[in-house]
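Task card 7
Instruction: Convert sequence to structure tokens.
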Amino acid sequence: MTEARATASGPGRLLVLVYGIFALSAGARAGVQIATKFADAPVAYLLSALAAVVYVLATIGLARSGPGARRLAVVACSVELVGVLTVGTVSLLVPEEFPDATVWSGYGEGYGFVPLVLPVLGLAWLRHTSPSRRPSPRPTRRPPSAQDSSEPPQPHRRPTRPEATP
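Output:
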């Protein structure tokens, strides 16, 4: 199994689907808000647009193959986690700075807290499918006589003939 199939197979397919849905919904929401009422809450709407871009990048990184795609997914999920924690905290501590909600406001409460859980699941899946976490082949077993010996193994020597005595 290749690295790419590992991230986009099994539960990875569900992650790609959810990230894709969030990319579309956050992008559509931000597009409408920026086009119709940008002056009301420019920071909130730009943060929603940023969230949409991050979701698109995470979707691409999780769906594609290769180490570059894996790095993209790790960076996107990490940025998303930092973003949702930062925006979520600021939106709760200083609500007047967010006259309208963003995707990440209140830790994603408007989206059922999925924006808070999604990057954690994404990073956990990337870690689970990491090539460095794959089990290495089992070492070959030595014969029982070699395992029981307390002496270090000796290099193989050819048997010698006894010297003839004159």
